[in-house]
């Protein structure tokens, strides 16, 4: 594989309503839709954007980000359920305030920790994302553009950098909503994190 671009969805209604994300179908806000347009304009300036295979989480906020951006940059994304955000189990559909009151305290390994009954762990999210990426790579996909979520984005970056699962016991990559992360392979074979969570293109949408 030659390169990967990772974009967490733009501002969603749950970001401003005090509700939890997880496996919910919150739409983008008006600002989020403007941010997605800005993302599309940036991507349309990539000289080789037509060479990218484009994928998106099948949750609404990611689908909308990908559709708006794709309408400008000229691509149609493929839906991939494995690229969803972390499942928060019993917290699905609840408020952030409810989560704060009911989240199970962390004990032991952060990798296997589940914040609520029915929730995924970091290892669970890593396993499903890694497995799908491995499959796409085995099928010969060379350049990937992925629309996903803030928590999940770390797993794509870690896969690209070939980090062992133990590295995510304490590590997390900060990727704000609508940001762009670029990864590539250097001529020497080193796997590069060229750009992390860049938001310069969003400066006019506040």
Automatic annotation (TrEMBL):
Molecular function in Gene Ontology: phosphatase activity
Gene3D superfamilies membership: Phosphoglycerate mutase-like (3.40.50.1240)
Coiled coil: none
Any one Pfam family match given in the protein's UniProt record, by short name: His_Phos_1
CDD domains linked: HP_PGM_like (cd07067)
InterPro entries: His_Pase_superF_clade-1, His_PPase_superfam, PGM_Phosphatase
Cellular component, GO annotation: cytoplasm
Positions with a binding annotation for substrate: 61
Protein name (Swiss-Prot/TrEMBL): Histidine phosphatase family protein
Natural source organism: Paenibacillus contaminans
